[in-house]
Design brief:
The protein has a six-stranded parallel beta sheet with strand order 3-2-1-4-5-6, sandwiched between helices. The protein has 246 residues and is α/β, with parallel strands linked by helices. 50% of the residues lie in helices and 11% in strands. The N and C termini lie close together (7 Å). The chain has two domains: 150 residues, 3-Layer(aba) Sandwich (Rossmann fold); 87 residues.
Length: 246
């Protein structure tokens, strides 16, 4: 079947998440306090930081085992409840999470060649989507907007907003339906064999492993195999031009 739609992973596919995470986390926690201190001036913020990171860690384990995302707002709600902060509005929780992710959102660099590649794919008439495992959909959307990438995409799916996370095929099918395509018309591009390639296979889509840093995780024996491994974003234009006209 001719290719009609491409579903992109976010981290290390469109932008690099290879950051100085020690520095980023420290800045994130400062942002969390700055966002919440007006609402909760008497909180023990060192304790809040520990509790919030603990619940985020528990959420990550749940996502890996059950393929269900725990939004960052829920982790923050749980952490605040331990200090008897209850009946917190969704707006306040979101403000705290936005503050937490502010430094991280600003830090992601665009992978070299991605804007030109996305423009080339749009010129070919392909519909494009982002499918991301993340605990905050606003983080992903704002980061795309900030980097002037959002305009290339017809749809953005984030596990925090939907519940299921990759490799659950439903998150891919949701984008597929939004793009008015069929599974055989779609290709998934991502850097992780265990989520992106496995998810593409479960969803019945073609799979492209983006090895943009030259050190992609080894594909386990008996695990899902990509149709193609690429080293540079521009390779997608040449590849998909062939797939558009099989």
């Amino acid at each position: 079947m001719a290719l009609k739609a491409v579903l992109f992973d976010y981290g290390n596919t469109l932008v690099s998440t290879r950051l100085d995470w020690g520095a980023v986390l420290a800045a994130n926690l400062i942002g969390l306090r700055a966002a919440l201190e007006l609402h909760f001036p008497r909180l023990h913020y060192e304790r809040l930081n520990r509790d919030f990171l603990f619940f985020r860690s528990m959420g990550k384990q749940r996502a890996e085992k059950e393929l269900i995302e725990t939004p960052a707002t829920e982790s923050l709600r749980q952490a605040l409840a331990l200090q008897e902060c209850r009946s917190i509005t969704e707006d306040t929780l979101q403000a705290g999470v936005d503050g937490f992710f502010k430094a991280e959102e600003e830090a992601y660099p665009i992978i070299f060649g991605i804007p030109e590649t996305l423009a080339g794919l749009k010129e070919m008439g392909l519909k494009l989507s982002v499918v991301s495992n993340a605990t905050c959909g606003r983080l992903v959307r704002r980061a795309l907007e900030r980097r002037r990438l959002m305009g290339y995409f017809d749809h953005v799916a984030v596990s925090a907003d939907l519940g299921p996370c990759k490799p659950d095929p439903s998150i891919f099918w949701g984008s597929m339906h939004a793009l008015e395509a069929k599974a055989e018309d779609c290709a998934v591009v991502g850097d992780r064999p265990d989520t992106d390639i496995e998810g593409a296979r479960r969803a019945g889509m073609r799979a492209v492993l983006a090895n943009f840093f030259g050190d992609a995780a080894d594909i386990p024996m008996g695990g899902p195999r990509p149709d193609v491994v690429i080293r540079h974003p521009q390779d997608l234009v040449d590849l998909f031009r062939k797939w558009v006209q099989p």
